[in-house]
Amino acid sequence: MRRRSICLLFLLCILVVTLRAQEQSIVLTESTDTLGVFGPKVWYFPINKTNLLRNHLGNARMFDALDSLLSIPNVSNHIDSVFIVAAASPIGRAAYNQYLSEARAQSLKEYIRRHHPHIVDARISTQAIGMDEDGYNAIYEKERAHVDAMTPQQRRTWLLKEVYPRLQYVSIRVLLTDGTLIHPERGSPLRTMLQPKVTTYDTIRVQTYDTIRVTVYDTIKVTPPPAPAPIPTPVDTSVIIKKVEKPSTFLLVIKTNLLYDLALLPNLALEYSLTPRYSVAVEGYWSWWDTRAPDYWSYRIQVVGAEAKYWLGSRLARPRLTGHYLGIYAMMGNYDVRLFPRSLSDMGYVSTLNYSGGITYGYVLPVGKRWDLEFSLGVGYVGGKYHEYNRSICADCYPIRSDKEHTYYGPTRAAVSLIYRIGMPHETE
Predict the structure, then answer these.
(1) By the 8 A CB rule, do 256 and 285 touch?
(2) How many Cβ atoms sit within 10 Å of the Cβ of residue 10?
(3) Helix axes 59-71, 94-115, angle to 10 degrees
């Protein structure tokens, strides 16, 4: 009797171990099949960025899900290929968007290389689609009724805040050796993200062995999605990526203040765009007009200066160096001015060194592919020393009548400038 009890207990232990192994196998298979967290889900990038940031939008959750996926032995040991897709928004030139999407795809590939080196590098391939027009159209179609009711300004705000940030992404597809395609959708990940999927299970059979419950799916019927696009043969694109150079964002403008030109004060300024928000400029004025007869006119001005600008408003909606801005400037120079004299005793003014500084507000209006008009006004401080003189004693010298020092606060400059752009023309930004 005791032997029979021991045998039954032994058989029961074997049954328990077998059922636990079967349950673990089923759970693992179910986990593999439900890894649709990488269905149409994506990592997002800030505008103009190519490095994956963990704290940007929902990227942290996606990193955790990816690490969990590639840590499952049933997945990592049976990976046929990893296919990475990256895109950019419509903002910017086509070549620049292509560069962004290629660099974004490469950033996820590098992450997998570093954190999951067991995945053979040759099995990882990338595709950079530039602007995701398919995803853009999908978003618009879903929101068509809402968007059509918007004003042009509301639509622009909607695009900048709701649409364009969603087009800056990288996504992933994993194909297993048994044919299982995690992320099985075709085309843009954004389009499939917006299309609901219906899954139905026909038959579920539950078997219970004492205190162990095992769920077995006899027949599973899944509403089939559209046939997946064929995944290209995995290739190492690192060489291709390295050959793609970032398109130039060089922008330099040359401008002249038409008001000063009308006042016979030739001037020229150069301004360089550092970023969409910041620019720096240098400028100079030079006049050397004088006559020795009959009353000795003099109109000599030499001034140089520099200015730093901060461009206001959304820089996504405007080309660089256009729109409203605030600036801070500093100038220095000298002058000799004696205009419209009626006699040799009329006074003239000559300075040794003058200096000024202040703030400016301006607006730049595009008027052509490479031409702009700038309107600006500056207020601040002007200081320095100067001398009064006349020609009554010595026609060929500067008899000084008095030395003076002046201090002035108020409007200091005004400009209506004609601008020519060297670098990015308006319609290609």
Answers:
(1) no
(2) 10
(3) 50
- Cα–Cα distance, 268 to 31 (Å, whole number): 68
The mean pLDDT value for 391-406 works out to: 72
Span 217-253, pLDDT tens digits: 444 444 444 444 444 444 343 433 334 455 567 899 9
Q: Please state, in angstroms and rounded to a whole number, the distance separating the CA atoms of residues 329 and 317.
A: 27
Report how far residue 306's alpha carbon sits from residue 331's, in angstroms, rounded to the nearest whole number: 7
pTM over 0.85: no
For residue 216, is pLDDT > 80? no
- Residue partners of 300: CB distance under 8 A and separation at least 6: 287, 288, 289, 290, 335, 336, 337
Q: What is the spatial distance between Cα 50 and Cα 102, in angstroms, rounded to a whole number?
A: 9
CATH numbers and ranges of domains, the chain: 2-243 (3.30.1330.60), 251-428 (2.40.160)
The band of 4, judged by pLDDT with boundaries at 50, 70 and 90, is low
Q: What is the C-alpha separation between 267 and 258, in angstroms, rounded? A: 9
CA-to-CA separations, 221 to 96, 109, 191, 199, in angstroms, rounded: 44, 34, 23, 7
